[in-house]
Automatic annotation (TrEMBL):
Protein name: Secreted protein
Gene3D superfamilies reported in the protein's UniProt record: FAD/NAD(P)-binding domain (3.50.50.60)
InterPro entries: FAD/NAD-bd_sf
Signal peptide: 1-24
UniProt keyword terms in alphabetical order: Signal
Pfam families noted in UniProt: FAD_oxidored
UniProt keyword Signal, yes or no: yes
Length: 471
Protein backbone atom coordinates (compact mmCIF):
# COMPACT_ATOMS: atom_id res chain seq x y z
CA UNK A 1 0.00 0.00 0.00
CA UNK A 2 1.42 3.42 -0.88
CA UNK A 3 1.90 5.81 2.05
CA UNK A 4 0.21 9.20 2.41
CA UNK A 5 2.68 11.78 1.17
CA UNK A 6 3.09 14.85 3.37
CA UNK A 7 4.87 18.18 3.26
CA UNK A 8 5.56 20.52 6.17
CA UNK A 9 6.08 24.23 5.57
CA UNK A 10 7.73 26.34 8.27
CA UNK A 11 6.31 29.88 8.19
CA UNK A 12 2.86 31.05 7.02
CA UNK A 13 4.07 34.28 5.37
CA UNK A 14 4.00 35.02 1.67
CA UNK A 15 6.65 32.44 0.73
CA UNK A 16 5.24 29.75 3.03
CA UNK A 17 1.65 29.97 1.79
CA UNK A 18 2.66 30.04 -1.86
CA UNK A 19 4.99 27.08 -1.31
CA UNK A 20 2.13 25.22 0.42
CA UNK A 21 -0.05 25.84 -2.65
CA UNK A 22 2.67 24.51 -4.95
CA UNK A 23 3.26 21.44 -2.74
CA UNK A 24 -0.46 20.62 -2.51
CA UNK A 25 -0.31 19.82 -6.23
CA UNK A 26 2.16 16.99 -5.54
CA UNK A 27 1.52 15.54 -2.08
CA UNK A 28 -1.55 14.30 -0.20
CA UNK A 29 -1.32 16.72 2.74
CA UNK A 30 0.51 19.96 3.57
CA UNK A 31 0.87 21.29 7.11
CA UNK A 32 1.98 24.90 7.54
CA UNK A 33 3.39 25.83 10.96
CA UNK A 34 3.84 29.38 12.22
CA UNK A 35 4.75 30.67 15.65
CA UNK A 36 2.28 33.56 15.39
CA UNK A 37 -1.36 33.27 16.35
CA UNK A 38 -2.68 33.97 12.84
CA UNK A 39 -5.41 36.64 12.57
CA UNK A 40 -8.63 35.91 10.73
CA UNK A 41 -8.40 39.04 8.60
CA UNK A 42 -6.02 41.67 7.24
CA UNK A 43 -4.55 42.54 10.63
CA UNK A 44 -0.92 43.16 11.54
CA UNK A 45 0.95 40.43 13.41
CA UNK A 46 4.24 40.09 15.25
CA UNK A 47 5.98 37.72 12.85
CA UNK A 48 5.74 40.15 9.91
CA UNK A 49 6.84 43.49 11.42
CA UNK A 50 7.74 44.82 7.96
CA UNK A 51 3.99 44.95 7.20
CA UNK A 52 3.96 48.47 8.69
CA UNK A 53 5.89 49.68 5.65
CA UNK A 54 5.18 50.13 1.96
CA UNK A 55 4.95 46.84 0.06
CA UNK A 56 4.57 46.91 -3.71
CA UNK A 57 3.75 43.70 -5.51
CA UNK A 58 5.23 43.84 -9.01
CA UNK A 59 3.40 42.33 -11.97
CA UNK A 60 6.00 39.55 -12.19
CA UNK A 61 4.97 38.34 -8.74
CA UNK A 62 1.26 39.15 -9.09
CA UNK A 63 0.95 37.05 -12.26
CA UNK A 64 2.64 34.06 -10.62
CA UNK A 65 0.41 34.35 -7.54
CA UNK A 66 -2.60 34.44 -9.87
CA UNK A 67 -1.39 31.25 -11.56
CA UNK A 68 -0.91 29.49 -8.22
CA UNK A 69 -4.06 30.91 -6.61
CA UNK A 70 -6.52 32.03 -9.31
CA UNK A 71 -8.80 34.89 -8.27
CA UNK A 72 -6.31 36.49 -5.86
CA UNK A 73 -5.91 39.71 -7.88
CA UNK A 74 -9.66 40.30 -8.10
CA UNK A 75 -10.05 39.66 -4.37
CA UNK A 76 -7.34 42.21 -3.64
CA UNK A 77 -8.90 44.79 -5.95
CA UNK A 78 -12.37 44.13 -4.47
CA UNK A 79 -10.87 44.77 -1.03
CA UNK A 80 -9.64 48.19 -2.19
CA UNK A 81 -6.11 47.45 -3.44
CA UNK A 82 -5.02 49.68 -6.33
CA UNK A 83 -3.78 48.44 -9.67
CA UNK A 84 -1.01 50.83 -10.69
CA UNK A 85 -0.26 50.73 -14.43
CA UNK A 86 3.44 51.11 -15.17
CA UNK A 87 4.65 53.62 -16.10
CA UNK A 88 1.25 55.22 -16.81
CA UNK A 89 0.20 55.65 -13.17
CA UNK A 90 3.65 56.51 -11.92
CA UNK A 91 4.91 59.97 -11.02
CA UNK A 92 8.53 59.27 -10.34
CA UNK A 93 11.77 61.19 -10.05
CA UNK A 94 14.43 58.53 -10.59
CA UNK A 95 18.17 58.99 -10.24
CA UNK A 96 18.19 60.19 -13.87
CA UNK A 97 15.15 62.48 -14.02
CA UNK A 98 11.33 62.42 -14.23
CA UNK A 99 9.84 59.32 -15.85
CA UNK A 100 7.51 59.93 -18.81
CA UNK A 101 4.09 58.36 -18.25
CA UNK A 102 3.95 56.06 -21.28
CA UNK A 103 0.99 53.64 -21.69
CA UNK A 104 1.09 50.67 -19.33
CA UNK A 105 3.32 47.71 -20.15
CA UNK A 106 3.54 46.32 -16.59
CA UNK A 107 1.67 46.96 -13.35
CA UNK A 108 1.89 46.67 -9.60
CA UNK A 109 -0.65 45.92 -6.92
CA UNK A 110 -0.63 48.57 -4.19
CA UNK A 111 -2.12 47.51 -0.85
CA UNK A 112 -1.12 47.15 2.75
CA UNK A 113 1.10 44.14 3.36
CA UNK A 114 -1.46 42.82 5.87
CA UNK A 115 -4.12 42.73 3.14
CA UNK A 116 -1.74 41.02 0.70
CA UNK A 117 -0.72 38.43 3.31
CA UNK A 118 -4.22 37.70 4.54
CA UNK A 119 -5.65 37.34 1.02
CA UNK A 120 -2.93 34.92 -0.03
CA UNK A 121 -3.17 32.94 3.23
CA UNK A 122 -6.95 32.68 2.99
CA UNK A 123 -6.86 31.69 -0.68
CA UNK A 124 -4.22 29.03 0.00
CA UNK A 125 -6.05 27.68 3.08
CA UNK A 126 -9.13 26.93 0.98
CA UNK A 127 -7.32 23.94 -0.48
CA UNK A 128 -8.55 21.00 1.64
CA UNK A 129 -5.05 19.49 1.49
CA UNK A 130 -3.58 22.53 3.31
CA UNK A 131 -3.74 22.86 7.11
CA UNK A 132 -2.33 25.98 8.78
CA UNK A 133 -1.37 25.77 12.46
CA UNK A 134 -0.49 28.98 14.27
CA UNK A 135 1.05 29.33 17.74
CA UNK A 136 3.61 26.62 17.02
CA UNK A 137 7.29 26.69 17.94
CA UNK A 138 9.50 24.78 15.55
CA UNK A 139 12.34 23.22 17.49
CA UNK A 140 14.39 21.54 14.80
CA UNK A 141 14.72 19.19 11.86
CA UNK A 142 14.49 15.39 11.92
CA UNK A 143 16.91 13.40 9.81
CA UNK A 144 20.57 13.71 8.89
CA UNK A 145 22.88 15.22 6.30
CA UNK A 146 21.52 12.85 3.63
CA UNK A 147 17.78 13.33 4.18
CA UNK A 148 15.43 15.49 6.23
CA UNK A 149 12.42 13.46 7.32
CA UNK A 150 10.33 15.88 9.37
CA UNK A 151 10.35 18.48 12.13
CA UNK A 152 9.97 18.65 15.88
CA UNK A 153 7.53 21.25 17.12
CA UNK A 154 5.57 22.27 20.18
CA UNK A 155 2.46 24.43 20.67
CA UNK A 156 3.51 27.76 22.21
CA UNK A 157 0.85 27.94 24.88
CA UNK A 158 0.12 24.42 26.06
CA UNK A 159 0.73 20.99 24.67
CA UNK A 160 3.53 18.56 24.27
CA UNK A 161 6.43 18.22 21.93
CA UNK A 162 5.53 16.38 18.74
CA UNK A 163 7.19 15.11 15.60
CA UNK A 164 5.68 15.62 12.16
CA UNK A 165 7.13 13.20 9.65
CA UNK A 166 7.27 14.58 6.11
CA UNK A 167 8.50 13.72 2.63
CA UNK A 168 9.31 17.40 2.08
CA UNK A 169 10.15 20.13 4.61
CA UNK A 170 10.15 23.71 3.31
CA UNK A 171 11.74 26.49 5.34
CA UNK A 172 9.97 29.82 4.75
CA UNK A 173 10.66 31.43 8.12
CA UNK A 174 12.00 34.66 6.62
CA UNK A 175 15.08 36.73 7.49
CA UNK A 176 15.44 35.11 10.92
CA UNK A 177 15.55 31.54 9.58
CA UNK A 178 17.58 29.20 11.81
CA UNK A 179 18.37 26.89 8.85
CA UNK A 180 22.11 27.57 8.48
CA UNK A 181 22.58 26.64 12.14
CA UNK A 182 20.33 23.59 11.85
CA UNK A 183 22.25 22.34 8.82
CA UNK A 184 25.65 22.52 10.50
CA UNK A 185 23.96 20.64 13.36
CA UNK A 186 23.15 17.88 10.87
CA UNK A 187 26.81 17.76 9.87
CA UNK A 188 26.78 19.87 6.69
CA UNK A 189 29.57 22.40 6.12
CA UNK A 190 28.84 26.14 6.72
CA UNK A 191 26.95 27.77 3.89
CA UNK A 192 28.35 30.79 2.02
CA UNK A 193 26.52 33.96 3.04
CA UNK A 194 26.86 37.20 1.05
CA UNK A 195 25.81 40.52 2.56
CA UNK A 196 25.51 43.94 0.94
CA UNK A 197 24.21 46.36 3.54
CA UNK A 198 23.69 50.01 2.66
CA UNK A 199 22.45 50.67 6.20
CA UNK A 200 19.05 51.63 4.79
CA UNK A 201 16.51 52.65 7.43
CA UNK A 202 12.74 52.95 6.84
CA UNK A 203 10.16 55.27 8.38
CA UNK A 204 6.47 55.07 7.46
CA UNK A 205 3.35 57.03 8.26
CA UNK A 206 -0.21 56.47 6.97
CA UNK A 207 -2.50 59.32 5.91
CA UNK A 208 -6.09 59.60 4.80
CA UNK A 209 -5.90 60.82 1.21
CA UNK A 210 -7.67 64.03 0.25
CA UNK A 211 -11.23 63.15 -0.75
CA UNK A 212 -10.84 63.46 -4.51
CA UNK A 213 -7.72 61.27 -4.50
CA UNK A 214 -9.06 58.29 -2.57
CA UNK A 215 -10.31 56.10 -5.41
CA UNK A 216 -7.42 56.58 -7.80
CA UNK A 217 -4.13 58.37 -7.52
CA UNK A 218 -0.73 57.69 -9.05
CA UNK A 219 2.11 56.17 -7.07
CA UNK A 220 4.51 59.02 -6.38
CA UNK A 221 8.19 58.42 -5.72
CA UNK A 222 11.28 60.56 -5.34
CA UNK A 223 14.51 58.58 -5.42
CA UNK A 224 18.09 59.40 -4.55
CA UNK A 225 20.80 59.64 -7.15
CA UNK A 226 23.06 56.75 -6.13
CA UNK A 227 25.91 58.29 -8.17
CA UNK A 228 26.02 61.45 -6.06
CA UNK A 229 28.48 60.08 -3.51
CA UNK A 230 26.23 61.08 -0.61
CA UNK A 231 23.83 58.98 1.48
CA UNK A 232 20.65 58.09 -0.44
CA UNK A 233 17.28 59.58 0.64
CA UNK A 234 14.04 58.35 -0.92
CA UNK A 235 10.32 58.88 -0.48
CA UNK A 236 7.31 56.99 -1.79
CA UNK A 237 3.60 57.71 -1.55
CA UNK A 238 1.61 54.53 -2.14
CA UNK A 239 -2.19 54.65 -2.50
CA UNK A 240 -3.59 51.68 -0.52
CA UNK A 241 -7.03 50.32 0.42
CA UNK A 242 -9.59 52.41 2.34
CA UNK A 243 -8.60 55.68 0.69
CA UNK A 244 -5.27 55.86 2.48
CA UNK A 245 -1.79 56.91 1.45
CA UNK A 246 1.15 55.04 2.90
CA UNK A 247 4.19 57.29 2.87
CA UNK A 248 7.58 55.67 3.39
CA UNK A 249 10.93 57.40 3.73
CA UNK A 250 14.15 55.47 3.37
CA UNK A 251 17.73 56.55 3.76
CA UNK A 252 21.08 54.80 3.54
CA UNK A 253 23.77 55.01 6.26
CA UNK A 254 24.26 58.65 7.22
CA UNK A 255 20.92 59.64 5.64
CA UNK A 256 18.49 57.69 7.85
CA UNK A 257 15.04 59.24 8.25
CA UNK A 258 14.01 60.47 11.71
CA UNK A 259 11.23 58.72 13.58
CA UNK A 260 9.43 61.77 15.00
CA UNK A 261 6.41 63.35 13.31
CA UNK A 262 8.13 66.74 12.87
CA UNK A 263 11.29 65.07 11.65
CA UNK A 264 9.28 63.02 9.13
CA UNK A 265 7.78 66.13 7.53
CA UNK A 266 11.14 67.95 7.51
CA UNK A 267 12.94 65.00 5.90
CA UNK A 268 10.38 64.90 3.06
CA UNK A 269 11.49 68.43 2.19
CA UNK A 270 15.13 67.32 1.95
CA UNK A 271 14.40 64.87 -0.88
CA UNK A 272 15.45 65.80 -4.41
CA UNK A 273 11.96 67.25 -4.93
CA UNK A 274 9.35 68.37 -2.32
CA UNK A 275 6.39 66.86 -4.23
CA UNK A 276 5.43 64.29 -1.57
CA UNK A 277 5.78 66.89 1.20
CA UNK A 278 3.42 69.18 -0.74
CA UNK A 279 0.90 66.37 -1.33
CA UNK A 280 0.61 65.30 2.29
CA UNK A 281 0.22 68.89 3.50
CA UNK A 282 -3.52 68.40 2.90
CA UNK A 283 -3.76 64.77 4.02
CA UNK A 284 -4.86 63.72 7.49
CA UNK A 285 -2.28 61.66 9.44
CA UNK A 286 -3.78 58.41 10.71
CA UNK A 287 -0.74 56.94 12.45
CA UNK A 288 2.51 57.96 14.06
CA UNK A 289 5.88 57.11 12.48
CA UNK A 290 6.95 53.45 12.38
CA UNK A 291 10.61 52.57 11.82
CA UNK A 292 12.57 49.54 10.58
CA UNK A 293 16.15 48.65 9.82
CA UNK A 294 15.83 45.07 8.46
CA UNK A 295 16.94 46.00 4.99
CA UNK A 296 20.35 44.41 4.27
CA UNK A 297 20.68 42.32 1.12
CA UNK A 298 21.59 38.88 2.46
CA UNK A 299 21.86 35.69 0.42
CA UNK A 300 22.57 32.15 1.56
CA UNK A 301 24.05 30.00 -1.19
CA UNK A 302 22.42 26.69 -0.20
CA UNK A 303 22.45 25.86 -3.91
CA UNK A 304 26.27 25.74 -3.82
CA UNK A 305 26.62 23.13 -1.06
CA UNK A 306 28.13 19.95 -2.48
CA UNK A 307 25.84 17.76 -0.39
CA UNK A 308 22.19 18.67 0.12
CA UNK A 309 19.71 16.62 2.16
CA UNK A 310 16.82 15.06 0.27
CA UNK A 311 13.45 16.39 1.30
CA UNK A 312 14.58 19.91 2.27
CA UNK A 313 13.90 23.17 0.41
CA UNK A 314 14.53 26.76 1.59
CA UNK A 315 12.83 29.74 -0.05
CA UNK A 316 11.65 33.32 0.45
CA UNK A 317 13.67 35.66 2.67
CA UNK A 318 15.14 32.57 4.37
CA UNK A 319 17.33 32.08 1.29
CA UNK A 320 17.65 35.63 -0.12
CA UNK A 321 16.43 38.85 1.46
CA UNK A 322 16.74 42.05 -0.55
CA UNK A 323 16.91 45.74 0.23
CA UNK A 324 13.14 46.42 0.23
CA UNK A 325 13.48 49.70 -1.61
CA UNK A 326 13.50 47.70 -4.88
CA UNK A 327 10.30 45.83 -3.93
CA UNK A 328 11.48 42.39 -5.00
CA UNK A 329 11.01 40.13 -1.95
CA UNK A 330 7.42 38.96 -2.42
CA UNK A 331 7.75 38.54 -6.18
CA UNK A 332 10.95 36.51 -5.77
CA UNK A 333 9.13 34.35 -3.19
CA UNK A 334 6.27 33.78 -5.64
CA UNK A 335 8.63 32.88 -8.48
CA UNK A 336 10.50 30.48 -6.16
CA UNK A 337 7.25 28.73 -5.18
CA UNK A 338 6.37 28.35 -8.86
CA UNK A 339 9.85 26.93 -9.45
CA UNK A 340 9.31 24.38 -6.68
CA UNK A 341 6.06 23.40 -8.39
CA UNK A 342 7.80 23.04 -11.77
CA UNK A 343 10.63 20.95 -10.30
CA UNK A 344 8.20 18.60 -8.56
CA UNK A 345 6.20 18.32 -11.76
CA UNK A 346 9.32 17.38 -13.68
CA UNK A 347 11.02 15.06 -11.18
CA UNK A 348 8.39 13.92 -8.67
CA UNK A 349 9.11 13.13 -5.04
CA UNK A 350 12.38 11.30 -5.41
CA UNK A 351 16.01 11.54 -4.28
CA UNK A 352 17.66 14.60 -5.82
CA UNK A 353 14.46 16.60 -6.38
CA UNK A 354 15.00 18.89 -3.38
CA UNK A 355 18.52 19.65 -4.52
CA UNK A 356 17.30 20.40 -8.06
CA UNK A 357 14.63 22.71 -6.61
CA UNK A 358 17.19 24.48 -4.39
CA UNK A 359 19.45 25.09 -7.36
CA UNK A 360 16.55 26.39 -9.45
CA UNK A 361 15.55 28.72 -6.60
CA UNK A 362 19.17 29.96 -6.48
CA UNK A 363 18.84 30.90 -10.17
CA UNK A 364 15.47 32.63 -9.58
CA UNK A 365 16.76 34.90 -6.82
CA UNK A 366 19.86 35.84 -8.78
CA UNK A 367 18.15 38.52 -10.93
CA UNK A 368 16.65 40.54 -8.04
CA UNK A 369 19.89 40.02 -6.11
CA UNK A 370 22.03 41.50 -8.84
CA UNK A 371 19.58 44.36 -9.62
CA UNK A 372 19.50 45.67 -6.06
CA UNK A 373 23.02 44.95 -4.88
CA UNK A 374 24.69 46.55 -7.91
CA UNK A 375 23.01 49.85 -6.99
CA UNK A 376 23.43 49.53 -3.22
CA UNK A 377 27.15 48.92 -3.56
CA UNK A 378 27.52 52.54 -4.81
CA UNK A 379 26.45 54.16 -1.53
CA UNK A 380 29.00 55.56 0.93
CA UNK A 381 29.87 53.33 3.90
CA UNK A 382 28.18 50.26 2.43
CA UNK A 383 29.13 47.00 4.14
CA UNK A 384 29.90 44.34 1.53
CA UNK A 385 30.89 40.71 2.01
CA UNK A 386 30.91 39.02 -1.39
CA UNK A 387 33.19 37.55 -4.01
CA UNK A 388 30.60 38.04 -6.78
CA UNK A 389 32.60 39.50 -9.71
CA UNK A 390 29.52 41.50 -10.75
CA UNK A 391 29.87 43.42 -7.50
CA UNK A 392 33.66 43.54 -7.41
CA UNK A 393 35.80 43.56 -10.58
CA UNK A 394 32.96 44.19 -13.07
CA UNK A 395 31.01 46.55 -10.84
CA UNK A 396 31.99 49.76 -12.68
CA UNK A 397 31.11 48.42 -16.15
CA UNK A 398 27.77 47.09 -14.97
CA UNK A 399 26.97 50.37 -13.23
CA UNK A 400 27.73 52.34 -16.41
CA UNK A 401 25.42 50.05 -18.40
CA UNK A 402 22.68 50.38 -15.78
CA UNK A 403 23.03 54.17 -15.88
CA UNK A 404 22.63 54.26 -19.67
CA UNK A 405 19.50 52.08 -19.45
CA UNK A 406 18.06 53.99 -16.50
CA UNK A 407 18.46 57.33 -18.29
CA UNK A 408 17.06 56.06 -21.60
CA UNK A 409 14.05 54.40 -19.94
CA UNK A 410 12.77 57.82 -18.87
CA UNK A 411 12.05 59.00 -22.39
CA UNK A 412 12.06 55.97 -24.70
CA UNK A 413 9.01 53.70 -24.51
CA UNK A 414 10.86 50.65 -25.86
CA UNK A 415 13.70 50.89 -23.35
CA UNK A 416 11.21 51.69 -20.61
CA UNK A 417 9.17 48.55 -21.42
CA UNK A 418 12.29 46.36 -21.43
CA UNK A 419 13.58 47.85 -18.17
CA UNK A 420 10.18 47.42 -16.53
CA UNK A 421 10.01 43.83 -17.71
CA UNK A 422 13.27 43.14 -15.90
CA UNK A 423 12.59 45.27 -12.80
CA UNK A 424 9.10 43.84 -12.24
CA UNK A 425 10.58 40.31 -12.51
CA UNK A 426 8.28 39.68 -15.47
CA UNK A 427 10.88 38.38 -17.88
CA UNK A 428 14.48 37.47 -18.44
CA UNK A 429 17.20 40.07 -17.91
CA UNK A 430 18.20 39.65 -21.57
CA UNK A 431 15.10 41.68 -22.64
CA UNK A 432 17.57 44.57 -22.62
CA UNK A 433 19.79 42.86 -25.19
CA UNK A 434 17.04 42.91 -27.84
CA UNK A 435 18.50 44.60 -30.99
CA UNK A 436 15.68 47.17 -31.14
CA UNK A 437 16.24 48.07 -27.50
CA UNK A 438 19.96 48.38 -28.13
CA UNK A 439 19.28 50.68 -31.08
CA UNK A 440 16.96 52.79 -28.93
CA UNK A 441 19.69 53.03 -26.30
CA UNK A 442 22.03 54.60 -28.85
CA UNK A 443 19.44 57.36 -29.52
CA UNK A 444 18.92 58.09 -25.83
CA UNK A 445 20.80 61.44 -25.87
CA UNK A 446 18.17 62.96 -28.22
CA UNK A 447 15.22 62.52 -25.84
CA UNK A 448 13.23 65.39 -24.44
CA UNK A 449 12.34 64.80 -20.79
CA UNK A 450 9.81 66.34 -18.40
CA UNK A 451 11.47 69.02 -16.29
CA UNK A 452 9.16 68.59 -13.28
CA UNK A 453 6.51 66.37 -11.66
CA UNK A 454 4.28 64.63 -14.18
CA UNK A 455 0.95 64.91 -12.30
CA UNK A 456 -1.98 65.75 -14.57
CA UNK A 457 -4.14 68.80 -13.83
CA UNK A 458 -6.94 66.47 -12.62
CA UNK A 459 -4.56 64.73 -10.22
CA UNK A 460 -3.33 68.07 -8.87
CA UNK A 461 -6.93 69.17 -8.33
CA UNK A 462 -7.81 65.85 -6.67
CA UNK A 463 -4.90 66.19 -4.28
CA UNK A 464 -6.03 69.71 -3.38
CA UNK A 465 -9.55 68.68 -2.28
CA UNK A 466 -10.42 69.40 1.33
CA UNK A 467 -9.89 66.58 3.82
CA UNK A 468 -13.22 65.09 4.86
CA UNK A 469 -12.49 62.88 7.84
CA UNK A 470 -16.09 61.68 8.11
CA UNK A 471 -16.17 59.85 4.76
C1 LIG B 1 10.65 47.44 5.50
C2 LIG B 1 10.39 46.42 4.43
C3 LIG B 1 9.69 46.76 3.27
C4 LIG B 1 9.48 45.81 2.26
N1 LIG B 1 8.88 46.18 1.08
C5 LIG B 1 8.69 45.25 0.10
C6 LIG B 1 8.03 45.59 -1.11
O1 LIG B 1 7.68 46.75 -1.38
N2 LIG B 1 7.82 44.59 -2.03
C7 LIG B 1 8.22 43.31 -1.81
O2 LIG B 1 7.99 42.45 -2.66
N3 LIG B 1 8.88 42.98 -0.68
C8 LIG B 1 9.11 43.90 0.27
N4 LIG B 1 9.76 43.55 1.42
C9 LIG B 1 10.26 42.19 1.54
C10 LIG B 1 9.15 41.26 1.98
O3 LIG B 1 8.61 41.69 3.22
C11 LIG B 1 9.72 39.85 2.12
O4 LIG B 1 10.47 39.54 0.99
C12 LIG B 1 8.63 38.83 2.28
O5 LIG B 1 7.94 39.07 3.46
C13 LIG B 1 9.24 37.45 2.31
O6 LIG B 1 8.28 36.55 2.70
P1 LIG B 1 8.68 35.30 3.59
O7 LIG B 1 7.42 34.50 3.66
O8 LIG B 1 9.93 34.70 3.11
O9 LIG B 1 9.02 35.89 5.03
P2 LIG B 1 8.08 36.62 6.05
O10 LIG B 1 7.03 37.39 5.38
O11 LIG B 1 9.00 37.35 6.98
O12 LIG B 1 7.35 35.44 6.84
C14 LIG B 1 8.02 34.56 7.69
C15 LIG B 1 6.97 33.80 8.48
O13 LIG B 1 7.63 32.83 9.27
C16 LIG B 1 7.17 32.90 10.63
N5 LIG B 1 8.30 32.47 11.46
C17 LIG B 1 9.49 33.08 11.59
N6 LIG B 1 10.30 32.34 12.38
C18 LIG B 1 9.58 31.25 12.76
C19 LIG B 1 9.87 30.14 13.57
N7 LIG B 1 11.05 29.96 14.14
N8 LIG B 1 8.90 29.23 13.75
C20 LIG B 1 7.68 29.39 13.15
N9 LIG B 1 7.36 30.41 12.36
C21 LIG B 1 8.30 31.34 12.16
C22 LIG B 1 6.75 34.35 10.82
O14 LIG B 1 5.78 34.47 11.84
C23 LIG B 1 6.18 34.68 9.44
O15 LIG B 1 4.82 34.32 9.35
C24 LIG B 1 9.98 44.49 2.43
C25 LIG B 1 10.68 44.15 3.58
C26 LIG B 1 10.90 45.10 4.57
C27 LIG B 1 11.71 44.72 5.78
Amino acid sequence: MSHTTRAVVLGAGMAGMLAATALARHVDAVTVLDRDRLPDGADPRRGVPQARHTHVLWSGGARVIETLLPGTTDRLLDAGAHRVGLPEDLVSLTAYGWQQRFPETQFMIAASRSLLDWTVRDQASRDPKVTVLGDMDILGLRGDARAVTGVTCKPRREGTLSVIEADVVVDATGRGSPMKRWLTGLGLPPVQEDVIDSGMAYATRIFRAPEGARKKFPLVSVYADHRAGVPGRNGILLPIEDGRWMVTLSGTRGGEPPTTEEGFADYLRTLRHPLIADLIDRAEPLTGVQASRSTANRRLFYDRLVEWPDGLVVLGDAVAAFNPVYGHGMSAAALSAATLDATLRGSGLRPGTARAAQRAIGAVVDTPWSLGTSQDICYPDVFARTDDPRLTRHADDRRRQADVIGAAALGDPLVCAAALQVNTLSGAADALQDPEVQQALSRAGELGLPDGPTLTDEERDAARTVVNAAS
